[in-house]
Amino acid sequence: MIMKRLDRLNTQLLKEYSEGIFFINCEGDIMFSNEAAFKLTGNEHKEKSQQLTALIHTSKQQQAQDFFQRALQGEKVQFSTTINHNTKKELHLYITLIPIIVSEQVAGVYAVCRDDSKEQERSNHISQLETHLKMEQKLANVGSWYYDVRENKSYWSPQLYNIYGLNPNQHFTPSLKNVLQFIKECDQKRLEEAVTEALSTGESYKIEYALMRPNGEERTVFEQADALVDEQGNIVQLIGVVHDITESKVITNELKQKEQQFQTIYNNLDAGIWSVDVQSNEMIVCSSGVSNIYGEDAAKFLGNRDLWESCIHPEDKPAVAKGQHQLQKGKMIRQQYRIYTKTGEMKWVKDRCIPTLDENGKLMRIDGIVEDITAEKKYMDHVEYLATHDHVEYLATHDHVTNLPNRRKFERELKNFIRQMKKERDLLAVFYLGLNRFKHINDTLGHDVGDRLLQRIANRLKKCVTPDVMLARAGEDELAICFLSLAHINECQKLAAALLQEIEKEITIDDFSLYVTASIGISIYPHDGEDAKMLLTNANLAMRRAKEVGRSDWQLYSPLMDSETYKSYHLEKGLRNALLQDEFFIEYQPKVHTNSREIDSIEALIRWNHPEWGRVSPEDFIPLAEETHLIIELGDWVIQHVCKQLQQWKNQGLQIVPVSINVSSKHLLKRGFVEHFQQTLAHYNIDPSFIEFEVTESSIIQYEEHVKKVMDELKKIGVTFALDDFGTGFSSLSHLKDFEFNTLKIDKTFIQHVTDKGKQQAITKSILYLAHALNMKVIAEGVETKEQLAFLQKHECTFIQGYIVSQPAAPQKIAEYLKRRFL
Asked: Which pLDDT score, from 0 to 100, does residue 718 have?
């Protein structure tokens, strides 16, 4: 009956149809298939009992059966599947099941089949390309986008969402307006103008800008875009890529800094550094030090190596030539010889030459360092002269740099002067003079500059005092002066003022303009001592007091100074028993978010309640502890008590916050420090992330490598580090770079003056900007006034600590704070 109806539906048309067609009865048997179906499946329908599902791959048969049942319910169904083929392993088909309705009943199903293999391959290929593109963008940290001008819609790649710190699945319309909210304010206008220009002119653009992710992290990106136009020249699309260059930017900046540091060092060395290409006989490198020594422009040496040879003293040329012959064999040589500068001045130089040979042993390049040793030669000649003329006594009693009497000579002569004053019943004054920042000049500009500075100061003072006044070098940066037959003690003030005025005048050495100040201590015979040793000791003590009171000042010795020494002695003695006598305790000062006032962390501050003097300032006993190495025992005590306190707060059900502990570099260098610290944490069940160690620049400057090693070990277990009193040391920037501190604490001395619109305010702004650029947590210490707080809020200082929030408080008070969370 059904076949007759098929005839009426033009069976011949179905047979010639280009797509494969099966007629399937309600039992699933194939009743008819056309030629195209045979070619697709490779199975000729011969038996009426054969079913279409039998041709389908085993794993897909159940799925096909389910679709067939849906077609029998009168639903048109489409699906992709895989069939077993006679000549091929498998074939992808796209099948449409169309129910045949007769008298409102499903009488059978047409199965229209199309070869889907190429489409499947194309789809898989596109999918693979998309996957590869996503991976490549992720690995290169490059995101792509396009903007359809006609539809006013934008598309972002998944990696571009990642660069902006967004979830690709979250609802976000990447319009220019929405994008600009992530761009730093200083870059928004530039980007907007670049996009607008591209849309109006069709010009491509390249731009670098900074964006802020929703979590507050700053990233630096490079974006470039091109416009696409239609046949009429209308702009239809903008296509662009965004490259996250944050890490490479940091590396580039570090390389620039290192290069600048190298160039600074390279061009400020007294020695000259040079390098010559032997094949071309031309200079490759020639530092400014070479020019300073030879008195010729470095550029001339770069273009003419023969010029160097012409400067050599004729008598020394054979020896130099002999050394050059050794270089040909690949041997490093050290030579001393004389040269004549452009002005005709003769100098002695020390030249070290290092050869570089090729694989065949042929000399290719010579690198060298040349130093001016004229002064050394003169000194050695002077020493030989003195020794020859029986002046060994002079060498033993005089300083070879300044030619002033040394301390031994000064003490010997002072004894004679005291005997003289005793007879004449006159006064005698000992001035002990300490130069400020002399060590810093030595360390930064070199000992040669330091020596010449001392010579200039010595010569000035010689002219300033009368011939009967004795002037001596008593130490590295200390001078001693003895004034005889004073009419009155008041004369000391006039003499001290004259000396300070003379010392503080500008001194020019090479290209450096140097300014030095001094602190002077004065002791009077017989009031302050009747022998040389006592007078020198008391003058030295007065000088140190002058340094404390204020540099570029002078102080007369007073017995009160001894009382400070007495107190210092007894504090040191008491310090040894304080731990045993339980005289120490800890107060805690919270650090809070600047705007919300939520407690972020707490600083532990050790306090000493002395039985005789009451509360002793940490400024008095911490330096004593450092000197006597008791700082290690104090540090262990603080760590143990902080961990114990954290455990108590936890047991009270309080939500604890990290506690910062001030730690000395000597403590960090203690053998087994890390292991002992971990044992303490384990004993009180405290996670390492709840401990932050605060170190000062001055404490790490002498032990940088060792301290960094210990810090790295502690960071691995979760401990964080803060750089305390930032800006008060000598090497702040290098410490930030090398030690990778988590937190930066701005010293209270800067905060006290932030509202003055002077240098302190400028420095504070710079520190805040630097901390933001390095993604560091920054805390301002010693915040006391609303004006200071307003300044810090304006300049986005995230955290504050100081009396405006809370004074250091007892643990019970801190427990109340932790319950409140906000102050």
From this structure: 94
Q: How wide is the angle at C-alpha 158 spanned by C-alphas 154 and 162, nearest 5°?
A: 110
Q: Tell me the C-alpha distance between 661 and 602, whole Å.
A: 9
Q: How far is CA 553 from CA 210, 498, 517, 549, in A?
A: 50, 12, 9, 8
162 closest CA partner among 237, 221, 239: 221
Whether residue 539 contacts residue 428, with contact meaning beta carbons closer than 8 Å, is answered with no
User: Which of 68, 137, 124 lies closest to 96 in space, CA to CA?
Assistant: 68
Amino acid at 114: R
Residue recorded with tokens 């067939």 = 68
Q: What would the DSSP string read from start to end of 359-371?
A: TTS-EEEEEEEEE
Comparing CA positions, the residue from 430, 276, 283, 408 lying closest to residue 353 is 276
Confirm if 515 and 504 have CB atoms less than 8 A apart: yes
| DSSP-assigned letters across all residues of 585-640 | EEEEEEEEETTT-BEEEEEEEEEEEETTTEEEPHHHHHHHHHHHTTHHHHHHHHHH
Closest CA to 608 of 577, 645, 639: 577
pLDDT for position 129 = 54
**Is pLDDT above 60 for 6?**
no
Quick one: angle between helices 673-684 and 704-716, nearest 10?
Answer: 30
Compute CA distances 311 → 294, 324, 342, 348, whole Å: 8, 16, 8, 12
Cα–Cα distance, 229 to 236 (Å, whole number): 5
CA-based nearest residue to 347, from 300, 296, 418, 395 = 296
More confident call, 509 vs 548? 509
Contact present, 221 and 209 (Cβ < 8 Å): yes
Q: What are the structure tokens assigned to 159, written together?
A: 């990696």
Do residues 546 and 519 lie in contact, with contact meaning Cβ atoms separated by under 8 Å?
yes
* Alpha carbons 638 and 319: distance in angstroms, whole number: 67
Rounded (5°) CA angle 195-199-202: 110
Q: What is the pLDDT of residues 104-158, one digit of tens each?
A: 888 888 888 888 766 666 666 555 655 555 555 555 578 888 888 888 888 888 8
pTM value is 0.39
Query: Could you tell me the pLDDT band of residue 485, with boundaries at 50, 70 and 90?
Result: confident
User: Alpha-carbon distance 23 to 109, whole Å?
Assistant: 6
CB 136 within 8 A of CB 158: no
Q: How many residues does the chain have?
A: 823
| Cα 52 from Cα 54, distance rounded (Å) | 5
Distance CA 619, CA 608 (A): 11
More confident residue, 83 or 821: 821
Give the separation between CA 597 and CA 599, rounded to whole angstroms: 6
Of 222, 203, 213, nearest to 165 by C-alpha is 213
H-helix segments, 362-490: 374-388, 392-397, 407-424, 438-445, 447-464
Q: How far is CA 333 from the centre of its chain?
A: 40
